[in-house]
């Protein structure tokens, strides 16, 4: 879990880690709680979509 203010480099860090793991032949799936965060990560999905979590409103 990485937390920090806007502009701290969280997305850059996630992208670098995912690129490194993919270069090693690992399968990487980015999962975030908000759709806004998902748009910033290549191949990302929201947690409820990825894990088929029902959301009852």
Automatic annotation (TrEMBL):
<protein>
    <recommendedName>
        <fullName>ATP-dependent DNA helicase</fullName>
        <ecNumber>5.6.2.3</ecNumber>
    </recommendedName>
</protein>
<dbReference type="InterPro" id="IPR027417">
    <property type="entry name" value="P-loop_NTPase"/>
</dbReference>
<dbReference type="GO" id="GO:0000723">
    <property type="term" value="P:telomere maintenance"/>
</dbReference>
<dbReference type="GO" id="GO:0005524">
    <property type="term" value="F:ATP binding"/>
</dbReference>
<keyword id="KW-0067">ATP-binding</keyword>
<keyword id="KW-0227">DNA damage</keyword>
<dbReference type="Pfam" id="PF05970">
    <property type="entry name" value="PIF1"/>
</dbReference>
<keyword id="KW-0234">DNA repair</keyword>
<comment type="similarity">
    <text>Belongs to the helicase family.</text>
</comment>
<feature type="domain" description="DNA helicase Pif1-like DEAD-box helicase">
    <location>
        <begin position="1"/>
        <end position="55"/>
    </location>
</feature>
<keyword id="KW-0378">Hydrolase</keyword>
<dbReference type="GO" id="GO:0006281">
    <property type="term" value="P:DNA repair"/>
</dbReference>
<dbReference type="GO" id="GO:0016887">
    <property type="term" value="F:ATP hydrolysis activity"/>
</dbReference>
<dbReference type="InterPro" id="IPR010285">
    <property type="entry name" value="DNA_helicase_pif1-like_DEAD"/>
</dbReference>
<dbReference type="GO" id="GO:0006310">
    <property type="term" value="P:DNA recombination"/>
</dbReference>
<keyword id="KW-0233">DNA recombination</keyword>
<dbReference type="GO" id="GO:0043139">
    <property type="term" value="F:5'-3' DNA helicase activity"/>
</dbReference>
<keyword id="KW-0347">Helicase</keyword>
<keyword id="KW-0547">Nucleotide-binding</keyword>
């Amino acid at each position: 879990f990485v937390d920090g203010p806007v502009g701290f480099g969280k997305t850059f860090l996630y992208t670098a880690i995912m690129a490194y793991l993919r270069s090693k032949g690992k399968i990487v799936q980015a999962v975030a709680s908000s759709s806004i965060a998902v748009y910033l990560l290549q191949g990302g999905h929201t947690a409820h979509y990825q894990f088929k979590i029902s959301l009852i409103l």
